[in-house]
Amino acid sequence: MDRVGHFTIPSDNPDKLRDFYSKTFGWSFEKWGEYEYWSATTGPKEKPGIDGAISRKSAFATEMVNTINVENLDDSIKKVQEFGGEVLFPKMPIPTIGWVTYFKDPDGNRFGMLESDPNAA
How many CA atoms does the CB half-sphere of 1 hold within 13 Å? Predict the structure, then answer.
């Protein structure tokens, strides 16, 4: 069974949003790579929940998106299409993390899927 493993909150003002979530919930952030993308730690690993990120809003990131961890991205892409989903962005690498792509479900909700692969480039 595949599970949501990550969320991304897009923002016009990432500094302000990081400040809000830090002060409100105690989340901590770390800039990831050269992108306007900050990984969020939302709590200790031994407690239920998932971590996420804040990114600068763009044509790609316009609303909050949950990303589902999958074993085989190619197989999962086929299933999404078979059952009425729409591919929004082609499969792409996130170096040292894995392969990701984004979709709309049959009701128009956006979501991502990620296959872990430390060799993705």
Answer: 2
* Number of domains comprising the chain: 2
Q: Would you say residue 1 lies in a domain?
A: no
Compute the CA torsion angle 32, 34, 37, 38 (nearest 10 deg). Answer: 40
88-97 burial by CB neighbour count: b if 16+ within 10 A, else e? eeeeeeeeeb
Record the tokens describing residue 7, joined without a space. 């969320």
Give the tens place of pLDDT for each residue, 25-55. 999 999 998 889 999 999 998 998 999 999 9
Structure tokens at 100: 């990701």
Q: Is the separation of the CB atoms in 70 and 3 below 8 Å?
A: no
Count Cα atoms within 13 angstroms, Cβ side, for 51.
Answer: 12
CATH number (domain holding residue 99)? 3.10.180.10
According to DSSP, the residues that pair with 115 across neighbouring strands are 99
Tell whether pTM > 0.70: yes
Q: What range does the domain containing 33 cover?
A: 10-61
- Cα separation, 49 vs 105, whole angstroms: 23
